[in-house]
Every structure is written in C-alpha cells, then in structure tokens.
C-alpha cells in the first residue's frame, strides 16, 4: 500500500488517506484549526499545559532519569557517547502522572478528534536532550517506520510532543516540513534484524534519499517547533521531520505520546522480518478512556 | 595580559580594551550603530552587497572549489568525512574579485572605523557548508585563539562575514552571545604543536569550559546571524560564537575577512610554542588601501 524498504527505492508518492478523520463537533479543535492541521500536518499550541504542570512533569522526569534501578530496563535508552539517559519508552507504566496525562481531556479529546475514532497508545516516551551533548535525528517520517517495522496499515496516527523546556530556534528542536505529510517517501534498503536496537540511537536504515528530502524542502520549506515550556506540537504520523544537534547549554526535554486509531490496529510488518517489541509498538488496542 | 591555555584554566575576566576604537566622523557607521556595536559586539547589515555581487562571488566560489589544481594547496581545507572543500584561506590571493572586495569602501571604511586606524588582513577565507553534511563549530572566541596561537596582543580586530546563501535559523548559521565580547574566557589546556592542522577541522584544544559557556549564555542569551544572501555580519574578535550542524538541504557559503589594526601587529604567540603559518595569521601589516 505504501511500499518501502526496497533495495531500489521508489520515488515519493501521493498519500492516499486523510490527515484529519474527525469533525469540529467531535472535540476541542475548531473547524479552522482542523483545516489548518489537514493542510500543514501539524499544530502548535502554546500554554497547552500550565507552568505548574510543567514543574510536576519535569520533577517526574528528573526522578525517572535518576532511578538507577531502571538503567538495566530495555525501555531505557542511553546516549551512545555519554551513557546518559536519552529516552524512556512506555513511560506511563513508570509514572502515574504521565499515565493520567494520556487520558487528560485536553490530550485524549484532540487525539480522538484528529483520528475520528477511539484511540490507543502506539508508543510513548520521554526524551532528554542535555545541553552541549544533544545529537539530532535525521529527516524521517514516523509512519514510514511504523508501516515497515510495525505493520501499521494507514497513516491514521498522530503524535503529541509536550515541551518541558523552552524550544529555541537553536537548541536542537524539531524541524518539520509543513505539507510534507501529503507525500509518502519510501525508505532505502532492506530492514536488518533487530534494527530498532540501533535505529533508536541513530537512524541509518529506512532513511529517505537526499533527493527526496531536497524536493520536499524546496516545495514546503522548513518550520521549527519553538516556544516556551508547556507548548505542545501535534503532528501527523507521516510528516517529514528531523532535528539538528545542540551545542548550546540549554537542554530540551519533552513528553512524546503517539496515538493510533483502534481501527488501524497493527498487522504484520510490511517491511521487516519480525515485529518490534510491544514497548516500541504496542499491540494492545484497548481504547484509552 | 589575557592569560589562556594554562593547565588549570582561570575563570572569565573582564575585557580591558574598547570594542569600537574609531568615531562616527571616521566612516560609514553612524553614532547609534557604533554604540550598539560597542554594546552587543556585532552588527548585522542586510543588503550589504547586491544580488548581482552575490552571484559574482558565488560563481567565484564554485570556480575555486572545483579547481582540482588547488586541492594539494595547504590553504585548502577539506571536510574530514567527505573530502569536500570546506574552506580556502588567503582567498584574495586566488581571486581578483575577492581581493577587490577587501578594499571596497563599504568594507574597508567600516573596518578602519571600528578599529580606529589603518588595517590589514589578519586572515581571510571562504567557507562552504554543504547541505546535509555541514558540521558545526563549538563555542569559542577568535581572539582567544589569535592571542594564544598568533601573538595578537589586543582584541583590536574585527571580522566581516558576508553570506552568499540565505542563513535560516536552522541550517547551521553562526550563533553569537551578544555582549559576551566584554568577557575574556580562557581556553583550557596547553596548545600542542601544529594544533592548527586539526583545530581548523574541529576545535578541541583551547575551548572554553562548559561552565563558562553556560554562564555567558544565561547572562547574554544567544542570537543568530540570519538573513538573505548578501547580508553581512560584523563581529568583534572576542565575541563568543559557535554553530550547530546542518541536516537541511540548504547549503551555506560565505566570505570571511578578518581585519586587524596596524597598531596591533602580531607578537610571538602568548600560548603556543611556534607561530602559525602566514596564510592563517598574516604577519605582513602593510595597510590596505
């Protein structure tokens, strides 16, 4: 349906499916907001959570990153160079306040509205990008990975990134190409076994060609997710995004929640030999409520 | 005078010398512009050169980067990973149009005015940062290097960077800390022999401590040199600056000219065993005219 991970990469193709599956009457987003999201593939909401909530979540992240008993857990990913904690997956299992956040009407209402159905958590994590040492992520579409490696049939998933630190234009925040979610760009090359073990630190397989990235950048330009702590970025599963490194002293932390429609349950992977573990690609589609 | 490159790094110290040495009556900058430059340590001028000049200079850079006969010249620096040309030093010797630019009244008038005397070229180069592959430079003060490795007594030098491509906030352009030029931050560690051979590709010796960079960033914040091709950044020799990597398809090229006052001729290096070659630190103080 969305062919990818083939030795001879095909060219970009037009997306077949909608971005917004629900209606203005379904939830918090108004008609104009939904139209803009359909067009651009992302929405930034400042003051999505309060300063008090930012402080609560930040304390929670500090606690989790400092918990030595978690270091051996496969859900805890460390920075290749420094050994510091970079991400914790399935974080709602470790944190009651983040578990509650995934069901918060501000969050769940928007996820359901964008996807036009009940939803479940496909993946969650918290990300820590320390000052000075943060390395970036090359351009990619999440859906390309989820389709190839997890068997997600359609781009009927949406991510919510909640910033717990200020995103400046210069400290390695997310870059997105507005409108690029309407194009499916295949990743190059066959997926090696257990690719996720290295791809979570540095993506090398399944990346788009420089030609495709150049074409999208010249067509759509590049926007950045900037704003104070407490801002949220809602972005479509298929939008082309990436991030540079961070040489500034200003760290970045965020909570990252991926919602998938219960009508888009995972199948066998379309471009890999075996599915990834459940903490990276959850197969329990029990709806959030 | 400005102690640096010692095994036990001292802390930051206040700069003893002025930034602007000339007067409004001396040249193109007005009184307010000079006051702002004294305060911030840099000035950005859009439309510093015309679109036609940008095209002429860009063609010149393309010609120089493509000239295989120059590849063996020590003045031509290549990217560690890809082998592509990253910088060409003493570029006015290779290019009549760039030689003329160094004497252009828009350039030379401002250099003389800021430094309050006749000036000569301490260093020149053109920089190529290709899309996708551009690596950044860690935070540093040029004057720290020029003082330690070249024997430049005082921060009475100024750099002019002319952008030949658009500087976005996200394609690895220069970051500066406004006002940081008023503080001298020592570099850590003794200078190894022939340090310049590696330091031009990736600075490792003489870098400021993370503590010092953090202090300056929290005091002064970070600005970026953004703007269309043809913009110029004039910046003090002692301003703290750096750049991130560039994962976007948008390349960056610029012409970089460093002017030193003829009254600030190089001495023996204050923090290195031997002076660097003349194409990196020119010792011919014949004034530009």
From TrEMBL, chains A, B:
Keyword annotations: Dioxygenase, Iron, Metal-binding, Oxidoreductase
Q: Could you state a single Gene Ontology molecular function term?
A: 2-oxoglutarate-dependent dioxygenase activity
Cite the EC number: 1.14.11.55
> Which InterPro entries does the entry link to?
EctD, Phytyl_CoA_dOase-like
The UniProt catalytic activity note for this protein reads: L-ectoine + 2-oxoglutarate + O2 = 5-hydroxyectoine + succinate + CO2
Tell me its cofactors. Fe(2+)
Query: What top-tier enzyme class does this entry carry?
Result: oxidoreductase
Give one Pfam family, short name only.
PhyH
Q: Does the keyword Nucleotide-binding apply?
A: no
Q: Which SUPFAM superfamilies match?
A: Clavaminate synthase-like
Q: Where is this region: Disordered?
A: 1-21
User: What's this chain's function?
Assistant: Involved in the biosynthesis of 5-hydroxyectoine, called compatible solute, which helps organisms to survive extreme osmotic stress by acting as a highly soluble organic osmolyte. Catalyzes the 2-oxoglutarate-dependent selective hydroxylation of L-ectoine to yield (4S,5S)-5-hydroxyectoine.
Q: What is this protein called?
A: Ectoine hydroxylase
